[in-house]
Amino acid sequence: MLYAVLCYSQEAAVESWSKAKEEDLMHRLSVVQEKLVADGQLGPHGRLMPTTAATTLRIGRELALVDGPFAETKEQLLGFYLLDCETFDEALEAARKLARERESGALEIRPLRHFVPGKTLG
Amino acid sequence: MNDPAWIDAALAAARPQAVAALLRYFRDLDVAEEAFQDACLRALTRWSEQGPPRDPAAWLILVGRNCALDGLRRKARFEVLTDAPPEDPVDEGEDELVDRLDGSHFRDDVLRLLFVCAHPSLPPAQQVALALRVVSGLSVKEIARAFLVSESAMEQRITRAKRAVRDAQVPFESPGAGERAERIAAVAAMIYLVFNEGYSASGGEEHVRVALCDEAVRLARLLLRLFVGESELQGLLALLLLHHARAAARVDADGNLVLLENQDRSLWDREAIAEGLAMVDKLLRAGPVGPYGLQAAIAAVHVRAPDAKATDWASIDRLYAALETVQPSPVVTLNRAVAVAKLRGAEAALALVDPLRERLASYFHFHGVRGALLLELERRDEARLAFGQAIALAHTPAEAAHIRMHLDRLGGLD
């Protein structure tokens, strides 16, 4: 069985960390992550850029491009994709293709700050 | 939660929102600050025992409000009340408050607090000092060190600024769309000032200046998160990120300024650059780009080049030309001239620069750029004169040292 673990926290608090605290935490996490990869449990993982770097594709009768992160509370997170694209335009085009088949909801496009491929899953 | 530093980070993160809400209750900066201070003291003991509340800002607002009301009551009645601390917010109270904090109310609170600090009646130095004190929560001592003034002088500056904004009476009603846009623009300009204070190396210790740049980035993020669609706020954040990313390469081991073209690009902060570039991509796609966005786009062209020689000067020239249209200024034209020099030679660039003489006579970079162009054209005596004028106008030893290097190559000052 594959499990997704989704990380939530307050962006403003994370931004207020000192550099030393941030580095310390990231180091401690990477130790655990590497161990989990070695154990064959952890696949691709990464850290997202802040929500201020996000763009949202709203799905309705037409696709609407909205600046900023997905901010509604009446919808739930149901899935995710990882895209590997040269440019933002390419990523947007790929997201449009994925959005066209859907009837509602939204796709938030957010660049990754950091990525580790981890174990090949499946 | 074995690390007490999380409380400091949580308090720092909650500060703008909490002080902003307290300012709305009490309509006085000093009372709001003091209420927040009291709430922080209580948080230090309470949170380390019980862990963080669900919404730290809401907790601080409620406790701060209770503390201040208590104090005001005590003063009003001239009677000594029991010294029992105010009640902590019960869970229902917190939930209710969190609900009320959602949405535009909270946005306008924080915007008002920032706008009070960026009030047009305040001179720039007072704006920066007030924002660093009230919004960022830096101590007077820290701010004094950043500005290279004594603590008492800084204390006075902040007191004067507070008095001025009290007299200015910023209205507490939610602003209309036009008023809101004006406030956002004033606040963006103030955040840019904070950044420049840290960036322009006008003196002070390195780590103090970096702290100011970090703080400006944090404020820009805060504001952008509140007003997500504002393209100029995106431009501002991208601009600050892309400049700040080069900080480690801007000054060499001896404290000398290193020009962009000579910087060791491996020292640049790649994470900050990636974020800045992602935002510029988004901006350029979305349509009309304002002054901050254009400057960010220019910075993006620079950092995209693997080395200085590979810089896409044609794009930079085009972007500066666009900037000249939306925000005409002799400094913009001077910057454009640098791109023109790379594209079409020093002669063409000098033709852009010379007409600016009157307006930029007291501007360090005008004489520096002009000297470099003259040098390239082998007009050595004129170059020497221009560099001499630049040195006389240098703000920092690093700036002066940089020009002196040119002069050395020309064979000295005389």
Tell me what the structure shows.
- The complex is a heterodimer of chains A (122) and B (414).
- Chain A has helices at 11-15, 19-38, 88-100, and strands spanning 45-48, 55-59, 63-67, 106-109, 112-116.
- Chain A has 122 residues and is of the alpha+beta class.
- Chain A has one domain: 2-Layer Sandwich (Alpha-Beta Plaits).
- A three-stranded antiparallel sheet of chain A has the order 3-2-4, with helices on one face. In chain A, strands 1-5 form a two-stranded antiparallel sheet.
- In chain A, a hairpin with a 3-residue loop joins strand 2 (55-59) and strand 3.
- The model of chain A has no long low-confidence stretch (mean pLDDT 92).
- Chain B is mainly alpha-helical and 414 residues long.
- Chain B has three domains: 5-102, no CATH class; 104-226, no CATH class; 229-306, no CATH class.
- Chain B has helices at 5-26, 29-50, 56-77, 91-101, 104-117, 124-134, 140-147, 151-168, 177-199, 206-226, 231-244, 247-250, 270-286, 291-304, 313-326, 330-344, 346-353, 357-360, 364-376, 380-393, 397-410.
- Helices cover 73% and strands 0% of the residues of chain B.
- Chain B contains 21 helices and no strands.
- The chains are: A alpha+beta (122), B mainly alpha (414).
- Chain A binds chain B through residues 10-13, 15-18, 21, 49-53, 55, 66-69, 71, 87-89, 92, 111, 113-114, and chain B through 3, 5, 9-10, 12-14, 56, 218, 221-222, 224-225, 228-229, 231, 234, 237, 271, 274-275, 278-279, 281-282, 285-286.
